[in-house]
Amino acid sequence: MSDIVVEFEDDRLGSLTKQLIALGAKNLERLVELREQSRNDESLTQIRTKEKNEAKTDNRTEKMKHDWYVGMRNGMREIDKKAKCVNVHDGFRFLDLGCCPGGFASYIMGQTEKSSAIGCKGVGISLPTEQAGYDLELSKKLRQSFEIHWADLTRYWLGPEDSPRSQESAGEFSELPPGITDKPFDFVILGASVIYSEVPDNRADIDRLLMAQLIIGFMTTRKGGTLIVKLAHIERVMTAKVLYLLHILSTEVWAVKPLRQHSKQPTFYAVAKGLGNGQQGGRVAEVVIGLRKLWCCLNFEGDLFMPAQLDFIITTKDLRDGKEGFLNRMVELGEEVCRVQVIGLQNATKHSKQHYQR
Protein backbone atom coordinates (compact mmCIF):
# COMPACT_ATOMS: atom_id res chain seq x y z
CA MET A 1 0.00 0.00 0.00
CA SER A 2 1.04 3.59 -0.44
CA ASP A 3 3.83 4.58 1.91
CA ILE A 4 2.99 8.26 2.27
CA VAL A 5 3.22 9.10 5.96
CA VAL A 6 1.61 11.95 7.87
CA GLU A 7 4.19 13.64 10.10
CA PHE A 8 2.60 14.34 13.47
CA GLU A 9 5.03 16.53 15.37
CA ASP A 10 4.68 14.90 18.80
CA ASP A 11 8.45 14.90 19.29
CA ARG A 12 9.77 17.30 16.68
CA LEU A 13 13.29 17.88 17.96
CA GLY A 14 11.90 16.96 21.37
CA SER A 15 13.84 15.71 24.34
CA LEU A 16 14.18 12.13 23.06
CA THR A 17 15.55 13.29 19.72
CA LYS A 18 18.06 15.52 21.49
CA GLN A 19 19.07 12.70 23.83
CA LEU A 20 19.71 10.30 20.96
CA ILE A 21 21.79 12.90 19.14
CA ALA A 22 23.77 13.58 22.33
CA LEU A 23 24.47 9.84 22.58
CA GLY A 24 26.03 9.83 19.13
CA ALA A 25 23.17 9.52 16.63
CA LYS A 26 25.01 11.40 13.87
CA ASN A 27 22.76 10.24 11.05
CA LEU A 28 19.69 11.30 13.02
CA GLU A 29 21.23 14.73 13.51
CA ARG A 30 21.81 15.04 9.76
CA LEU A 31 18.30 13.78 9.07
CA VAL A 32 16.75 16.43 11.32
CA GLU A 33 18.66 19.10 9.38
CA LEU A 34 17.51 17.73 6.02
CA ARG A 35 13.89 17.50 7.15
CA GLU A 36 13.92 21.15 8.15
CA GLN A 37 15.39 22.11 4.80
CA SER A 38 12.90 19.98 2.86
CA ARG A 39 9.89 21.57 4.60
CA ASN A 40 10.75 24.86 2.90
CA ASP A 41 11.58 23.29 -0.47
CA GLU A 42 8.74 24.12 -2.87
CA SER A 43 9.80 21.53 -5.44
CA LEU A 44 9.77 18.75 -2.82
CA THR A 45 6.34 19.89 -1.65
CA GLN A 46 5.09 19.55 -5.22
CA ILE A 47 6.53 16.04 -5.43
CA ARG A 48 4.82 15.04 -2.16
CA THR A 49 1.51 16.33 -3.50
CA LYS A 50 2.03 14.42 -6.74
CA GLU A 51 2.80 11.19 -4.84
CA LYS A 52 -0.30 11.54 -2.67
CA ASN A 53 -2.44 12.04 -5.75
CA GLU A 54 -0.89 9.01 -7.44
CA ALA A 55 -1.65 6.91 -4.35
CA LYS A 56 -5.37 7.51 -4.81
CA THR A 57 -7.18 4.56 -6.37
CA ASP A 58 -8.43 6.34 -9.48
CA ASN A 59 -4.95 7.54 -10.40
CA ARG A 60 -3.13 4.19 -10.20
CA THR A 61 -1.86 2.94 -13.55
CA GLU A 62 -1.03 -0.72 -14.23
CA LYS A 63 2.65 0.22 -14.29
CA MET A 64 2.38 1.91 -10.89
CA LYS A 65 0.68 -1.16 -9.42
CA HIS A 66 3.34 -3.48 -10.84
CA ASP A 67 6.15 -1.20 -9.68
CA TRP A 68 4.72 -1.24 -6.14
CA TYR A 69 4.52 -5.05 -6.23
CA VAL A 70 8.14 -5.32 -7.37
CA GLY A 71 9.20 -2.67 -4.85
CA MET A 72 7.63 -4.64 -2.00
CA ARG A 73 9.30 -7.86 -3.14
CA ASN A 74 12.69 -6.14 -3.34
CA GLY A 75 12.02 -4.53 0.04
CA MET A 76 11.45 -7.93 1.65
CA ARG A 77 14.63 -9.17 0.01
CA GLU A 78 16.57 -6.30 1.62
CA ILE A 79 14.99 -6.99 5.01
CA ASP A 80 15.89 -10.67 4.78
CA LYS A 81 19.44 -9.93 3.64
CA LYS A 82 19.96 -7.67 6.64
CA ALA A 83 18.13 -9.59 9.38
CA LYS A 84 18.29 -13.13 7.92
CA CYS A 85 14.72 -13.65 9.06
CA VAL A 86 13.03 -15.76 6.36
CA ASN A 87 14.01 -19.24 7.54
CA VAL A 88 11.55 -21.58 5.88
CA HIS A 89 11.02 -25.24 6.75
CA ASP A 90 8.46 -27.97 6.16
CA GLY A 91 5.05 -26.73 7.25
CA PHE A 92 6.20 -23.10 7.39
CA ARG A 93 3.26 -20.71 7.84
CA PHE A 94 3.24 -16.93 7.53
CA LEU A 95 0.68 -14.17 7.97
CA ASP A 96 0.88 -10.95 5.97
CA LEU A 97 -1.32 -8.03 7.08
CA GLY A 98 -1.78 -5.44 4.35
CA CYS A 99 -0.46 -8.04 1.93
CA CYS A 100 -1.61 -6.71 -1.43
CA PRO A 101 -0.37 -6.43 -4.06
CA GLY A 102 1.67 -9.31 -2.64
CA GLY A 103 5.33 -8.39 -2.99
CA PHE A 104 6.37 -9.57 0.48
CA ALA A 105 4.46 -12.83 0.07
CA SER A 106 5.99 -13.48 -3.36
CA TYR A 107 9.51 -13.21 -1.93
CA ILE A 108 8.75 -15.48 1.03
CA MET A 109 7.04 -18.09 -1.13
CA GLY A 110 9.94 -17.93 -3.55
CA GLN A 111 12.24 -18.87 -0.67
CA THR A 112 10.07 -21.88 0.15
CA GLU A 113 10.46 -23.08 -3.43
CA LYS A 114 14.23 -22.65 -3.31
CA SER A 115 14.48 -24.60 -0.07
CA SER A 116 12.26 -27.44 -1.33
CA ALA A 117 10.27 -27.13 1.91
CA ILE A 118 6.89 -28.84 1.71
CA GLY A 119 3.52 -27.94 3.17
CA CYS A 120 4.26 -24.21 3.35
CA LYS A 121 1.34 -21.78 3.37
CA GLY A 122 0.72 -18.06 3.50
CA VAL A 123 -2.34 -16.19 4.74
CA GLY A 124 -3.05 -12.53 4.08
CA ILE A 125 -5.54 -9.84 4.99
CA SER A 126 -5.90 -6.84 2.71
CA LEU A 127 -8.31 -3.99 2.13
CA PRO A 128 -10.82 -4.75 -0.67
CA THR A 129 -10.33 -2.92 -3.96
CA GLU A 130 -13.72 -1.26 -3.56
CA GLN A 131 -12.32 0.37 -0.42
CA ALA A 132 -9.23 1.64 -2.27
CA GLY A 133 -7.12 -1.49 -1.68
CA TYR A 134 -4.85 -3.18 -4.20
CA ASP A 135 -5.46 -6.32 -6.24
CA LEU A 136 -3.46 -9.46 -5.42
CA GLU A 137 -0.73 -9.80 -8.06
CA LEU A 138 0.56 -13.26 -7.09
CA SER A 139 0.88 -15.80 -9.89
CA LYS A 140 -1.63 -18.66 -10.13
CA LYS A 141 1.04 -21.06 -8.91
CA LEU A 142 1.77 -19.03 -5.77
CA ARG A 143 -1.93 -18.44 -5.09
CA GLN A 144 -2.38 -22.18 -4.62
CA SER A 145 -0.48 -21.86 -1.34
CA PHE A 146 -1.84 -18.47 -0.31
CA GLU A 147 -5.18 -17.76 1.35
CA ILE A 148 -6.44 -14.19 1.30
CA HIS A 149 -9.15 -12.48 3.35
CA TRP A 150 -10.50 -9.17 2.09
CA ALA A 151 -11.21 -6.94 5.07
CA ASP A 152 -10.53 -3.67 6.86
CA LEU A 153 -8.28 -4.63 9.78
CA THR A 154 -9.80 -1.93 11.97
CA ARG A 155 -13.24 -3.57 11.72
CA TYR A 156 -12.32 -6.78 13.52
CA TRP A 157 -13.38 -7.10 17.16
CA LEU A 158 -10.14 -6.99 19.15
CA GLY A 159 -11.35 -5.85 22.56
CA PRO A 160 -10.82 -7.83 25.79
CA GLU A 161 -12.27 -11.34 25.72
CA ASP A 162 -14.25 -10.67 28.91
CA SER A 163 -15.70 -7.41 27.59
CA PRO A 164 -19.24 -7.92 26.24
CA ARG A 165 -20.04 -5.96 23.13
CA SER A 166 -22.54 -3.16 23.51
CA GLN A 167 -25.73 -3.37 21.47
CA GLU A 168 -24.54 -0.44 19.36
CA SER A 169 -21.22 -2.07 18.45
CA ALA A 170 -22.45 -5.65 17.99
CA GLY A 171 -22.97 -5.28 14.26
CA GLU A 172 -20.02 -3.01 13.56
CA PHE A 173 -17.20 -5.52 14.04
CA SER A 174 -16.54 -9.07 12.87
CA GLU A 175 -14.49 -11.90 14.35
CA LEU A 176 -11.05 -12.73 13.00
CA PRO A 177 -11.24 -15.48 10.34
CA PRO A 178 -10.69 -19.04 11.67
CA GLY A 179 -7.60 -19.40 9.49
CA ILE A 180 -5.97 -16.58 11.45
CA THR A 181 -6.58 -17.79 14.98
CA ASP A 182 -6.62 -21.60 14.69
CA LYS A 183 -2.87 -22.12 14.75
CA PRO A 184 0.04 -19.72 15.43
CA PHE A 185 2.28 -18.60 12.57
CA ASP A 186 6.05 -18.91 12.23
CA PHE A 187 6.35 -15.50 10.59
CA VAL A 188 4.02 -12.49 10.81
CA ILE A 189 4.22 -9.18 8.94
CA LEU A 190 2.38 -6.09 10.17
CA GLY A 191 2.68 -3.91 7.09
CA ALA A 192 -0.73 -2.35 6.43
CA SER A 193 -0.89 1.40 5.82
CA VAL A 194 -3.74 3.86 5.67
CA ILE A 195 -4.87 4.32 2.08
CA TYR A 196 -5.18 7.95 1.05
CA SER A 197 -8.35 9.02 -0.75
CA GLU A 198 -10.30 12.24 -1.01
CA VAL A 199 -10.76 12.54 2.75
CA PRO A 200 -8.26 14.50 4.89
CA ASP A 201 -5.49 12.63 6.68
CA ASN A 202 -6.90 11.13 9.86
CA ARG A 203 -4.62 10.50 12.83
CA ALA A 204 -7.28 8.34 14.52
CA ASP A 205 -7.41 5.95 11.54
CA ILE A 206 -3.64 5.54 11.63
CA ASP A 207 -3.70 4.87 15.38
CA ARG A 208 -6.48 2.28 15.14
CA LEU A 209 -4.73 0.47 12.29
CA LEU A 210 -1.44 0.20 14.18
CA MET A 211 -3.22 -0.98 17.33
CA ALA A 212 -5.21 -3.63 15.44
CA GLN A 213 -2.05 -4.97 13.82
CA LEU A 214 -0.06 -5.10 17.07
CA ILE A 215 -2.82 -7.09 18.77
CA ILE A 216 -3.16 -9.54 15.88
CA GLY A 217 0.61 -9.85 15.60
CA PHE A 218 1.20 -10.73 19.25
CA MET A 219 -1.82 -13.05 19.26
CA THR A 220 -0.83 -15.04 16.19
CA THR A 221 2.98 -15.32 16.22
CA ARG A 222 4.17 -18.60 17.70
CA LYS A 223 6.65 -18.63 20.56
CA GLY A 224 10.08 -18.35 19.01
CA GLY A 225 8.64 -17.00 15.76
CA THR A 226 9.43 -13.80 13.88
CA LEU A 227 7.33 -10.63 13.91
CA ILE A 228 7.93 -7.74 11.51
CA VAL A 229 6.31 -4.39 12.32
CA LYS A 230 6.17 -1.38 10.03
CA LEU A 231 6.83 1.76 12.09
CA ALA A 232 7.70 5.40 11.43
CA HIS A 233 10.05 7.99 12.92
CA ILE A 234 12.47 5.92 14.96
CA GLU A 235 13.23 8.95 17.17
CA ARG A 236 9.70 9.33 18.53
CA VAL A 237 8.62 8.24 21.99
CA MET A 238 5.76 6.06 20.71
CA THR A 239 8.02 4.24 18.26
CA ALA A 240 10.71 3.86 20.92
CA LYS A 241 8.23 2.20 23.28
CA VAL A 242 7.14 -0.29 20.61
CA LEU A 243 10.79 -1.07 19.89
CA TYR A 244 11.46 -1.51 23.61
CA LEU A 245 8.53 -3.91 23.77
CA LEU A 246 9.96 -5.99 20.93
CA HIS A 247 13.39 -5.78 22.58
CA ILE A 248 12.25 -7.30 25.89
CA LEU A 249 9.99 -9.94 24.33
CA SER A 250 12.40 -11.20 21.66
CA THR A 251 15.88 -12.64 21.45
CA GLU A 252 16.97 -10.39 18.60
CA VAL A 253 15.68 -7.10 17.12
CA TRP A 254 16.68 -5.39 13.90
CA ALA A 255 15.56 -2.08 12.37
CA VAL A 256 15.70 -2.18 8.58
CA LYS A 257 14.84 0.49 6.05
CA PRO A 258 14.85 -0.83 2.47
CA LEU A 259 16.78 1.52 0.21
CA ARG A 260 14.58 0.75 -2.79
CA GLN A 261 11.21 1.17 -1.10
CA HIS A 262 10.33 4.81 -0.36
CA SER A 263 13.71 5.59 1.12
CA LYS A 264 12.87 9.26 1.69
CA GLN A 265 9.86 8.44 3.87
CA PRO A 266 10.23 8.01 7.67
CA THR A 267 8.99 4.41 7.67
CA PHE A 268 11.10 1.36 8.51
CA TYR A 269 10.60 -2.26 9.57
CA ALA A 270 11.35 -3.60 13.03
CA VAL A 271 12.22 -7.30 12.87
CA ALA A 272 11.75 -9.23 16.13
CA LYS A 273 13.18 -12.76 16.08
CA GLY A 274 12.54 -15.33 18.78
CA LEU A 275 9.36 -13.63 19.99
CA GLY A 276 8.41 -14.83 23.46
CA ASN A 277 11.94 -16.05 24.22
CA GLY A 278 13.43 -12.71 25.26
CA GLN A 279 14.35 -11.55 28.77
CA GLN A 280 10.69 -10.76 29.45
CA GLY A 281 9.20 -13.08 26.85
CA GLY A 282 6.65 -14.37 29.31
CA ARG A 283 4.86 -11.01 29.19
CA VAL A 284 3.35 -11.54 25.72
CA ALA A 285 -0.08 -12.50 27.11
CA GLU A 286 0.00 -9.51 29.49
CA VAL A 287 0.86 -7.21 26.59
CA VAL A 288 -2.05 -8.51 24.50
CA ILE A 289 -4.46 -7.83 27.39
CA GLY A 290 -3.12 -4.29 27.76
CA LEU A 291 -3.35 -3.58 24.03
CA ARG A 292 -6.90 -4.92 23.85
CA LYS A 293 -7.94 -2.47 26.55
CA LEU A 294 -6.31 0.33 24.58
CA TRP A 295 -8.17 -0.85 21.47
CA CYS A 296 -11.45 -0.11 23.25
CA CYS A 297 -10.22 3.36 24.23
CA LEU A 298 -9.32 4.17 20.63
CA ASN A 299 -12.57 2.83 19.18
CA PHE A 300 -15.18 3.85 21.74
CA GLU A 301 -13.75 6.74 23.75
CA GLY A 302 -12.28 8.78 20.92
CA ASP A 303 -8.75 8.59 22.29
CA LEU A 304 -5.66 9.08 20.17
CA PHE A 305 -2.80 6.61 20.65
CA MET A 306 -0.44 8.50 22.99
CA PRO A 307 2.94 7.40 24.42
CA ALA A 308 1.61 7.50 28.00
CA GLN A 309 -0.86 4.73 27.14
CA LEU A 310 2.09 2.35 26.82
CA ASP A 311 3.39 3.14 30.31
CA PHE A 312 2.43 -0.39 31.35
CA ILE A 313 5.35 -1.50 29.17
CA ILE A 314 7.81 1.26 30.07
CA THR A 315 7.11 4.77 31.35
CA THR A 316 8.27 7.70 29.29
CA LYS A 317 10.44 8.80 32.22
CA ASP A 318 12.16 5.42 32.45
CA LEU A 319 12.68 5.43 28.70
CA ARG A 320 14.26 8.87 28.73
CA ASP A 321 16.27 8.04 31.85
CA GLY A 322 17.93 5.29 29.84
CA LYS A 323 16.48 2.29 31.68
CA GLU A 324 18.46 -0.87 30.90
CA GLY A 325 20.63 1.09 28.49
CA PHE A 326 17.92 1.06 25.85
CA LEU A 327 18.66 4.55 24.53
CA ASN A 328 22.10 3.35 23.45
CA ARG A 329 20.40 0.45 21.71
CA MET A 330 18.05 2.96 20.05
CA VAL A 331 21.04 4.79 18.64
CA GLU A 332 22.40 1.52 17.23
CA LEU A 333 19.05 0.55 15.72
CA GLY A 334 18.40 3.98 14.28
CA GLU A 335 21.69 4.90 12.64
CA GLU A 336 21.24 2.71 9.55
CA VAL A 337 17.55 3.64 9.27
CA CYS A 338 18.41 7.35 9.39
CA ARG A 339 21.34 6.89 6.99
CA VAL A 340 19.04 5.41 4.34
CA GLN A 341 16.50 8.22 4.76
CA VAL A 342 19.26 10.81 4.51
CA ILE A 343 20.28 9.27 1.18
CA GLY A 344 16.64 9.19 0.07
CA LEU A 345 16.04 12.85 0.94
CA GLN A 346 19.31 13.94 -0.67
CA ASN A 347 18.41 12.10 -3.88
CA ALA A 348 14.86 13.48 -3.82
CA THR A 349 16.14 17.03 -3.34
CA LYS A 350 18.61 16.64 -6.19
CA HIS A 351 15.93 15.16 -8.47
CA SER A 352 13.36 17.82 -7.61
CA LYS A 353 15.76 20.66 -8.37
CA GLN A 354 16.75 19.11 -11.70
CA HIS A 355 13.11 18.47 -12.63
CA TYR A 356 11.72 21.89 -11.74
CA GLN A 357 14.63 23.83 -13.23
CA ARG A 358 13.87 22.48 -16.71
TrEMBL record:
Pfam families (UniProt xref): FtsJ (PF01728)
Region feature (Disordered): 39-59
Domain Ribosomal RNA methyltransferase FtsJ: 76-274
Gene3D superfamilies for the chain: 3.40.50.12760
InterPro entries the UniProt entry points to: RNA_MeTrfase_FtsJ_dom (IPR002877), SAM-dependent_MTases_sf (IPR029063)
Molecular function in Gene Ontology: methyltransferase activity
One Gene Ontology term from the biological process aspect of the record: methylation
Superkingdom field: Eukaryota
Protein name from the UniProt record: Ribosomal RNA methyltransferase FtsJ domain-containing protein
Organism: Collybia nuda
Lineage of producing organism: Eukaryota, Fungi, Dikarya, Basidiomycota, Agaricomycotina
